[in-house]
User: Fold this.
Amino acid sequence: MTTCAVVGCVQIFDGEFSPYSASHSIADVAAANVLKAAILCAFGSFHILKWPVLSTVAAAVALICTKMALFRGWTDGHGAAAAVLLVTTACTLCQLAAVRSSSFVNDYGEADPDVELMPTVAVTTVPKSETAISSNAQSKSPLSFQYLPEEDDDLAEPLLTGDYDEVEAGGHNGGNGKGGRAPAADGKVRGQNGGNGKGVRTPAADTKASTMRSLLHYAQPDALLLSLGLCFLLVSATARLALPNFTSRCLAAVVSSEGDGKDHLFNNLQFRNNLAYLVGTAAVYAFFSMLRIWCTAKAEVRLMARVQRVLFAAIMRQDISYFDKYGTGQLTSRLTSDATMLGAIITTNCNWVIQTSLSLFGSMGYLFFLEPRLAGVYVAIATVFFVITRQFGSFVRKLQKKIQDVKGDANQVADQSIALARLVRAFAAEEWEQHHYDKSNLDMVREQLRSKMAYSLYVPVVAIVQNALTFAVLCLGGFYVTRGQMSGADLTAFLFYSQTVQDNMNTLSEQIISLFQGLGAGEKIFEIIQHQPTLPITGGLVPPGEPKGELKLNNVGFAYPGSPQLRVIENMNLTIRPGERVAAVGPSGGGKSSLVGLVLRYYDPVQGTVLFDGHDIRVLDPRWLRRQIGVVTQDPFLFGVSVRDNIAYGRPDMSLEEVHRAARLASAHDFILQLPLGYETVLGERGVTLSGGQRQRVAIARALARQPKLLILDEATSALDSSSEHEVQTALQTLHAKTRTSMLIVAHRLSTIQDADRILVIQRGHIVEQGTHTELLARKGVYSVLVSRQLQTELLEGDQP
Ligand SMILES: Nc1ncnc2c1ncn2[C@@H]1O[C@H](COP(=O)(O)OP(=O)(O)OP(=O)(O)O)[C@@H](O)[C@H]1O
Assistant:
């Protein structure tokens, strides 16, 4: 179509209304088809731009038909070409309809397009004594593994039911060896696939080059779109390169017409032709730019979403110790700002780099073509000036970076004060916070003024450099023109192209900087994606039959991965029989919560074994294990969804009756019914619209809804008032009487665990005493001291008015 338009324009301007030839018709049809293919590919999911696309196709057809009519295409025996045109247009519309119906993914669902990129880790080791049992549940899972018994102390190698590929793993393994996969000396580890029978190749990311490779790997699904974008880019960049030439030629024609006595500028053939080429080239540039932008923008959006999905999956599968080490802020910024920067690399940055490089080197080449000596001098001076302005620019950028840091500090102060407004008010610390904020604010002002001052110097320096270059070109070029060694038109073109060279030099360097920043962000992202957790989240043994809920610790020792030298649990032996209610008490920092973490397999012990129903929990499918254990912690985290969804968390298939039952057991049913929308009431962020006691009861209901075989209450009733606590205690006793669920209750308030079957006193990582309340009191050891201290405290509190 564009070709048609350009040729048509030229013919009209030339006044050559020559008969429309058969070759013209065929060329038109071919052009229309090429255009159609481009549009189809570019606007694959054209549901977004339905009307622009359809209008473009209609305009193409109308233009070609008009042109054929104008040039007597219909009457000169070219009906066949016209018929071909109509048929192909009809086909185009059908294809567009087909593309529309097939290209849009509403949800990732079963036909997940990114399944091969998803990190899949489900590795565990099996002690020699264990036999792998492949349950129904496991064989249905997309991650299907069989295990060989562990040989020596080496890691067991998972055997996949499908093929497996070698996975390059540049990131560190990060594991302590147990249950993880250590990278081999050559930096390669064995990987497993996602159950689709094909291997997953995860590229390494320890350098910028490998980050780029990884990124290209993630961009592969959009390879066609990107290739098209590249083709459109080459066309639009070439057109852009040609524009100043036609502009300068037009200008030269205008100058040469000065005072020539002709009525109309359009009578000047040189002006007419160059103007027609200028209009045609500008149309080509605009049209192909539109196609290029659409293709690359679509690829960018998809690439970013893909990276974010894979990254989120990678974060979610990390060990708990990983979350201990890296804060929420760091990980979420990887998901947001870093992913955005990374997504822009292939599309925005690379696009600009290619486009400006083409324009830069093309313009430079043309300068040399116009006048090599002038071009040589110009490029030499421009390069020196460019280096100077770059240096100055990077100094200004450093100052701006500092501003960002100071701004970040100020924002952090503001964020904290606003988020903790209640605390600030309670401590009457408004002035202190204001003083804090003012300090950061003044730092910000100081840095900003410094930067603005540098910038105010930078702008004139750049202006002087640019004008000095123009000055040099005009002087030297003018000298050549006056000596007849160069035409005036060529000097005008030279000036235009030299401006393009300068602009492109600046843009190219800016884009290269952004590209490297994006690669830096990418390195951090791929580091997380390739970081192999040591503990699996799924896969492993699912024991047959109904679980009993027996827990056993055999000579367990544990230290947190962050401080491996500090044993927080030492040589601990413990058995909780099915149906038994065991309480753990003891001084703060004794290791009670660490024990809970071990039972839930947030961490693996560094010594000994934790057994559930007689199986080492390291061989059990962690998902199955955690389904058998209900947990309620001191800080009840609730999601900002409905009460019902909070209780049925992780089990969307749970019936309303089951939800009600769990809420009744947790003494939460009555207050939930009094909420504005009952069970459908949406809670505020982290459940802030409920009182502490209400939140705790919803959390207990959530744990009970899964009908666990072992219920862990880690300071679960500490936030309740005495009447709510009494209610929940009664509810838990009824639950225990009904279901004989085993319980491990961590408590500080000793009055709440007096009727436990057994009480463990944990101090400095050891069980120092155990027995019933009466037995322990009679022993007059640590427990009796704790009880008497607490009694004294309660008495003192009771005395206070
Ligand atoms: N994520 C962690 N990384 C490193 N050390 C930790 C971590 N969590 C706890 N600890 C340390 O482990 C020890 C035991 O802590 P734990 O939370 O198990 O004690 P606790 O008996 O539950 O205490 P409290 O009754 O106060 O809740 C403490 O010395 C604590 O500093």
Observations:
- DSSP finds 23 helices and 14 strands in the chain.
